[in-house]
Prior knowledge:
Mean pLDDT: 86
Order of helices and strands: EHEEEEHHEEE
Structural class: alpha+beta
Low-confidence stretches: none
Strand order of the largest sheet: 2-3-1-4
Number of helices: 3
Helix content: 10-25%
Amino acid sequence: xxxxxxxxxxxxxxxxxxxxxxxxxxxxxxxxxxxxxxxxxxxxxxxxxxxxxxxxxxxxxxxxxxxxxxxxxxxxxxxxxxxxxxxxxxxxxxxxxxxxxxxxxxxxxxxxxxxxxxxxxxxxxxxxxxxxxxxxxxxxxxxxxxxxxxxxxxxxxx
Length: 158
């Protein structure tokens, strides 16, 4: 990505506000949050002007970040997991398969979540996000919420 804009944030609510602004714009700009700063990226500097912040040329970097959405099955609360494990144990016992808890009871793997209101059905939901640092740049697409759709990465710097 050639350009980025940086917005200082002091709360998750501010991040949510800007992610929704990105979603409404239809631009599908990639983003991540680091050290109290929210960064949106684009190859077109005009796309970033919706944030009413300075547009800056992206510096060269050897590190990239892939920000992905964590799906529902991977983000269960402990109570949901316990209930589901109980049903799974019962089902496996009925069909004669041994339950192996090591493989089944893994903790959810996400870095943070945003409370978002869907624009299509107006329902609120949690958007769980996982950030992964990578050494290679991968070009690709981003969702309307600014998350990687196919492993696409953004330049990462502090």
